[in-house]
Amino acid sequence: MRLTDLLHPHLDGVTTVVDATDGGLDLEPYLHLPGDVALHQGERDIGESELVLVSYGPDPALHGTETDCLAVLHRMRPGGRGLILFGHHGPELPYHRLLDALVAHHCQVLRAAPLDYEHLHAGAVFVRTDELLPPHDWSGRPVPAEGFATALRIADEYVLADLVSRSLRARVLDLERDAEEAERARGPAHEDGLAERLAAAVREKDRLAAALHRARDRVGLLEARVAMLEGSTSLRVGRALVSAARSPRREATRLPRELYGLWRGRATSHQASTGVAPGARELYVRLRGRGTSRSVPPGTASKGRPASRSTASETVAREAVSDARLHLAYRAFASMPRDRLVIAGVLTEATAAHLAADAVVNRALPHDGRLVVQRTDPDALVVQLSACTGDGPWALTGTGLAPDLDRRLAELITETRAAGRSCVLWRDGPASAAPALTRLAWDAVLDADAGVRLASLDPAADGRQRLREVFRADSTRVRLSQLARRIGAPDPLDERRVCVLAAPQDRADIARLTAQVLDQKHRPCEVVVPDPTGLDELAAAGVTVRTGAPLAPWVADWTDLTEDRPDTLLLDLMCAQEYSGADAVGSTPAADDYTFVPELRPLLVRRSLLASGAPPETWARQGHRLFAWCGKEPT
Question: How far, in Å, CA of 352 to CA of 88, rounded?
Answer without folding.
Answer: 44
